[in-house]
Design brief:
334 residues; 15 strands
Length: 334
């Protein structure tokens, strides 16, 4: 379906207007062309192949393509969350030959205008970045929160054997006997903890639930979105939580054959409790996997180094890269 861009043409940089950019809502038929444009993006950890079809079906999301001479050269997704007040920007990608020409900025501007026309109550635009913010970024965005990114990789079978060694044939929970066993939450308990009590205020970073790069405020409309997803929710204690975690079920990524991605978002500052929940998520989600796993753990920045040492020395998994940060930023929609 083509979108009428006449109201926005005047706002486009002259060079790009003359280049003949056209915008369209993405469809199932565009998938192969988008994937061809996206080769090697995110270091082979691209989530879009797995989520593209479901994104197109989400009523609060619009996926926009930019075309040049009829070919797809860029994509961006915008999802309205926080009860209609926030525009979440995701999935941005530009074809290699078009990078550095301002295409991303033009596409973002077009998407913002489109969302404002459809959802006039939207007040802010949020996105999550893992690159280093510069002075211009701080002029444009407000930083909501930061998490350290710990990226490790392992063979699923090797890790299962290591976890078995650590637990000496028993439940992995027994490997840290002085730490309470984590509690997996059902939907009723999740809603109670996150919506009807203030117990999570001291746990969540700046009152933000970050799930696989998506930042949500703890609101009923957002919880309805999150509870439809395949996520394991854990806390150390339902009466007085100190650490909470969300583990997205593993999915395939295009880094190679039999490669999976496992995303764990950890909130709280207690290292022992964080390690315990991390181990439980690993045991739960590698039990049936065969092949290789890239596991990305997001956690409070001061916990990154000791958790990295735990991964390398105790779990004997490979560190993929040194410390980087996940930054949730926002800007007013004008």
């Amino acid at each position: 379906m083509k979108i009428d861009t006449s109201v926005n043409v005047a706002q486009l940089p002259e060079a790009l207007s003359q280049a003949g950019l056209q915008f369209a809502v993405a469809t199932e038929e565009d998938f192969d062309e988008i994937m061809a444009m996206s080769q090697d993006i995110y270091g082979g950890l691209d989530y879009l192949p797995t989520r593209y079809t479901s994104w197109l079906q989400e009523t609060n999301r619009t996926v926009i393509l930019a075309r040049k001479h009829g070919k797809v050269i860029a994509l961006e997704s915008v999802c309205v969350i926080d009860g209609g007040e926030t525009m979440l920007v995701e999935g941005l990608r530009v074809a290699p030959q078009e990078r550095g020409k301002g295409v991303a900025g033009v596409l973002l501007r077009f998407c913002s205008e489109l969302v404002k026309s459809k959802y006039p109550e939207v007040k802010v635009s949020r996105l999550t970045r893992d690159d280093k913010l510069g002075p211009k970024d701080f002029q444009k965005y407000r930083v909501i929160t930061k998490q350290g990114i710990l990226l490790v990789r392992f063979n699923a079978e090797d890790l299962k054997r290591r976890l078995s060694e650590l637990s000496q044939g028993g439940d992995i929970k027994s490997s840290l006997p002085t730490v309470p066993s984590p509690i997996r939450l059902d939907h009723t308990t999740i809603n109670r903890l996150y919506l009807t009590t203030d117990l999570m205020q001291g746990v969540l970073p700046n009152a933000t639930i970050i799930q696989d790069w998506q930042p949500f405020k703890p609101l009923p409309t957002n919880m309805a979105i999150l509870l439809k997803k395949e996520i394991d929710w854990m806390v150390d204690n339902v009466s007085s939580p100190n650490v909470a975690s969300l583990c997205t079920f593993p999915f395939r990524v295009p880094i190679g054959d039999d490669w999976y991605y496992l995303n764990i978002d950890m909130f709280g500052k207690d290292l022992d409790l964080a390690q315990q929940q991390f181990l439980c998520h690993l045991q739960q989600h590698t039990a049936t996997l065969k092949g290789h796993v890239m596991c990305q753990l997001f956690l409070d920045p001061p916990l990154w180094k000791p958790m990295m040492e735990f991964c390398r020395n105790t779990l004997r998994v490979e560190l993929v890269k040194e410390y980087t940060e996940q930054c949730v930023v926002e800007a007013d929609v004008i």
